[in-house]
Structures are given as C-alpha cells and as structure tokens.
Amino acid sequence: MNQDNLPAHAGVGKYVSDSQESTIALGTVLGRLLREGDVLVLTGDLGAGKTQLTKGIAAGMGVEDDVTSPTFTIEMVYEGEGLPLYHFDLYRLDDPDQLDDTGLFDVLGGDGPCVIEWGEQFSDEIGPERVDVFLTRLDSEVPVGEEPPREIRLVAHDARGRELVAALDDAVAGEL
Predict the structure, then answer these.
(1) Which pTM value belongs to this model?
(2) What is the signed CA dihedral for 16, 17, 18, 24, rounded to 10 degrees?
C-alpha cells in the first residue's frame, strides 16, 4: 500500500483524510482487520465519505466487485477472500419496524462483517456490539471550492470494538 495515501492519525481511533484515496486507504487497512460478526455503523452527511470507506473495507477483504451504496436495494453482499461483506444503506428507512424486511437481523453477528450506512437512528436495534464510525467534513479548514478534509472517528461500544480500534491504530502506525 502507498504509505502516502494513509490519513493522518489524530488520536485514538481518529484520523484526518485529505482525499478519497486516503479514505479508501484507511478502509483497506480496516478491512484486513475485520472478522465475522464485526459491525460498523457509518455516520456522516451526504458526501462525507461513507461509501469510499466501504470501498476500501471491501478491497481490504479481497472483494473484487465494484462497491456502491445500496440506497435502493438496502443490502448488498460481496464475497471477499475469506468472508462475505454485508453492506447496508438505511437512508430511506425511518421506522425500526422496517428493519425486519432488510435482512439486517439475519446477518448481525453472522459469518461476515456488516457495514451499515445511515444506521445511527437504529443503534438500539443494532445493539451495543458495534463500532460507530463518524465521518465529518472539515469545511471550515479549506478555501471555498476546494475539497475539504474529513475527520474519521471510530467509537467502540464493546470489547471487540475496542480491540478493532486499537488494531487499526497499530496497523496505520506500522504503515506510516
């Protein structure tokens, strides 16, 4: 991996990405660390980089398919080298009862990691065995018309999540 593409490490579970390539590079490192049953809930405004991070995660897992946000299909399953990647986009949902029809509960804690875009409104239903990933555009730090950097912050809610965040920090430090 090109070390220049990795985002700046800004603290425990915190990174600053200055490009799509940098966000994808972080996702690639993260994808290599994921195990079956891991759950990532990606939160951020439109264009914050959720799908770019997921593309990197998929690449790190050996997925060769083109990864896009499943806004209209809700779920996509990608076959990686050792595990499937379950990718959900819950943007169009507004009621927890709608989750029953998505297939989410069938794969949570299952045979592959689960990446959920726009899942923050359903954190109670998803449960505490997850890592929340906040992607925030840092618009105030660049001149108008230029692409702003993004802060990517991982917040673990369980022991496996804390282990994953620490492993990502170590892996990125080793790549730099």
Answers:
(1) 0.92
(2) 180
